Automatic annotation (TrEMBL), chains A, B:
Entry GO MF terms: alanine racemase activity
Entry-linked InterPro entries: Ala_racemase_N (IPR001608), D-amino_acid_metab_enzyme (IPR051466), D-ser_dehydrat-like_dom (IPR026956), D-ser_dehydrat-like_sf (IPR042208), PLP-binding_barrel (IPR029066)
Organism expressing this protein natively: Nonomuraea mangrovi
SMART domains: D-ser_dehydrat
Domain D-serine dehydratase-like: 250-343
Protein family membership: Belongs to the DSD1 family.
Keywords: Isomerase, Lyase
Gene3D superfamilies attached to this UniProt entry: Alanine racemase (3.20.20.10), D-serine dehydratase-like domain (2.40.37.20)
Pfam families linked to this entry: Ala_racemase_N, D-ser_dehydrat
Keyword Lyase: yes
EC id: 5.1.1.1
Signal sequence residues: none
Species lineage: Bacteria, Bacillati, Actinomycetota, Actinomycetes, Streptosporangiales
Protein name, UniProt field: Alanine racemase
């Protein structure tokens, strides 16, 4: 399997990527919403361009460093879905605004007030709402409507909409629970925007969605934009949630068996430095593609230790190569400088993970 | 706090580093064992040199890529504590052996046989023993003694000793349990080496130890070498095990509060892309230095969400800077290109994390 690539290595199947990108663009088009993919999953301008060419209206970034790299590649419509704070970042934002349309999300008047002093045209802001993840934002309804009014009154700021991430949907136990959480992600924001309108503030953007919720929330009346990220690669978490299959996972870690200490124990040369600890402890949080009888037990920094089911003991001898499907594709891609890209089973190129490590 | 550094950022306190390095060198000297620190924790040749100047006899690396970077910096005594497999790696090992004394650990005749075909002087090998971590190696005693005999018979290979990592010691619940596990790490290897001697194979190296077990196992008669890594920086895991205090943690993530959605919830601008998911779920797996009433709840990729105890609600307003003590220093350092180094409370230099991402 790809003998020209030494292991461990990040391998991306571009055929699967294209299918995933096209499918999500169709979901958006079918529901009449804009698609603004989060590029944190791939961190590569080449793949952001592919998403835009397939119909995305712009991109989402978490950090300025990511946005700057995407702007360097000519991408000019960026949502920075993170509260920006501090003079160095505000200076960088001002420079970024010279070459791209930039919106920023936030959840506090403090952050908005500093942004409002930037100068130039008003900063377009989306106010983040807590639809159940309990990370950023106030609850929907009156708490958020009051916050919107407070922020809208800040000079230099234009509140253009509401934004949420139903991150708690990742913990859904059934497809029904996932669908219900996703729909509420949309209806909570739409009803809050209606409350803002009654307060005299018209909001034109209702921005929602993650990969697991996108297909459900895109159909909620009033939603204007979905922001899935993981869908371009998918991962074992998406498989567990039922929104991906092994065949639709595109970013994998090619690894080699370097030890077989017991008949049932298989040790690969890829640990948390390639796969992260994200999701560890969940059943089959990392999968061995095509080897359903191997179950990941634990990772150390450079080792992945799996157990083989009875009936398969002694298989996968030292030297065997396998593709490990990560639990969380986004954080895995962040560990690699280079992705090896394959098409039709052949290695065709390398892509640089240009925004790797862009934490500021 | 360090206003010249934008957040999030990796900050290393060199005063604490020097103390930690000196203390462990004393532990080794006092017990008459050699110290071969694992450089995976810092990944920086400058700090490896500091360890050698303080008395270390050589270094330990997990991956060839790390070893090559250390050899580039003139370090010439390297233990590669990982089974090497495949032609590209064997070619690199041959080149590395031209400029450094290199030992390799492994746990299978398959891996040893390939190494034995390298040519040149025999490859010095340490056979890895499973003292309870259940990762690599066979159990101590007869299973390992038989393996040693089998590997020693392979042309081109010289078995010089036994090696183990009592990784299960990280799960110790009490200091007594930790000490007992550590001592057994040593006695298991020593008694196995005695069995090998009775079989006619004299082993001169008994290489053990991690940061939590080092102080205990260094005193076991027959142990020749300890290989702690984390001690140079320490982390919240070492604090939980009672082998470090907040004052002896040297590698921290400087972060800024970017949201205060509720009186008790504090959100920092550093998530798993800076701190990893290692250890998540353990109580106080990540600590806010000097803020004992803040308790980390969960991380997402770019967010750390902490809760304040009653009586402290409303503290840490947006813009507050804090030092986050990671759960696992080694994997955190691997996420950064640059470490900001401080001495006596002043930022004095930057060091490049030269072996970041060296997974091959």
């Amino acid at each position: 399997m790809y003998p020209e690539i030494d292991t461990p290595a990040l391998v991306i199947d571009l055929d699967v990527v294209r299918t995933n990108v096209t499918e999500m663009a169709k979901v958006a088009a079918r529901n009449g919403v804009r698609l603004r993919p989060h590029i944190k999953t791939h961190k590569m301008p080449e793949l952001a361009r592919m998403q835009l060419e397939a119909g995305a209206s712009g991109i989402t970034c978490a950090k300025l460093g990511e946005a700057e790299i995407m702007a360097d590649a000519g991408i000019d419509d960026i949502l920075l879905a993170f509260p920006l704070w501090g003079e160095p970042k505000l200076r960088r934002l001002a420079a970024l605004r010279e070459r791209a349309r930039v919106r920023v999300s936030l959840d506090s008047p403090d952050v908005a007030a500093a942004l409002g002093r930037l100068g130039g045209p008003p900063v377009e802001v989306l106010v983040e709402v807590d639809t159940g993840q309990h990370r950023l934002g106030r609850p929907p309804g009156r708490p958020t409507a009051d916050l919107v009014a407070e922020i809208a009154a800040i000079p230099g700021i234009e509140v253009v909409g509401l934004l949420t991430l139903a991150g708690h949907a990742y913990h859904s136990r059934t497809p029904g629970e996932l669908a219900a959480t996703a729909r509420r992600e949309g209806t909570d924001l739409v009803s809050t925007a209606e409350m803002c309108a009654r307060d005299g503030i018209e909001l034109r953007e209702i921005s929602v969605g993650s990969t697991p919720t996108a297909r459900h929330v895109a159909g909620v009346a009033g939603v204007t934009e979905i922001r899935p990220g993981t869908y371009i690669f998918n991962d074992a978490s998406m498989m567990r949630l039922g929104v991906a299959t092994e065949a639709t996972t595109a970013a994998r870690v090619l690894a080699t068996v370097i030890a077989r200490p017991t008949p049932e124990r298989v040790v690969f040369d890829a640990g948390t430095k390639c796969l992260t600890s994200d999701g560890s402890g969940s059943p089959d949080w990392i999968r061995v593609a095509g080897v359903p009888y191997a179950h990941m037990e634990f990772l150390n920094e450079e080792h992945a230790v799996a157990q083989l089911e009875p009936g398969h003991h002694g298989e996968l001898p030292v030297g065997t190569r396998a593709m490990l499907i990560p639990s969380h594709a986004c954080s895995v891609v962040n560990l690699f400088d280079i992705a090896h890209c394959v098409e039709d089973g052949q290695v065709i190129t390398e892509l640089r993970v240009a925004a790797r490590g862009a934490v500021r």
